[in-house]
Amino acid sequence: MARNRFREIMRFLRFDQKSNRLARLHAHMSYVWDTFIENCQKYYKPGPYISIDEQLFPTKARCRFMQFMGSKPDKYGQKFWLAVDKESKYTVNGFPYLGKDDQRPINQRLGDHVVMKLMQPYLNKGRNVTCDNFFTSLALAETLETKRTSIVGTVNRARRETGDEVMTARRKC
């Protein structure tokens, strides 16, 4: 295909409708992303261990939900929350971080909300969630326990809910 023809096709290729773009921030690629996640869940059954973390997909595109993460090799990009099967590293669920989420209850931490949303298709199936200290909390562990799901993660000692035993405990390795 000629370069000019390719550019002409790309100029008119759209995955969204301009009329609802303001209401749906991720509209420019939500159909493609949602189809990808739907197929990941449909054609792959994860093992008992699922890992949850953030992933920064580097991009130079201008958008409202561009994120800066100084600790990543590529500093700017679109941030996605992902649930990944531990053994195969296969993505089993995910969604983009678009800023403040109106669906999240006011009294729920962002990390708890993300874990519950990512694990929704896999709750009550005896699976284990592994995550870092951003996600791990006592409230999340109690909620997951009622859904027959266990959690393993590092605990942030600075959180208010952390007990005195954890605050004074020394590393025993």
UniProtKB/TrEMBL annotation:
It comes from the Eukaryota. InterPro entries: PGBD. It holds the Pfam family DDE_Tnp_1_7. Residues 1-166 form the PiggyBac transposable element-derived protein domain. This is Transposase IS4. It comes from Popillia japonica (Japanese beetle). The lineage of its organism: Eukaryota, Metazoa, Ecdysozoa, Arthropoda, Hexapoda.
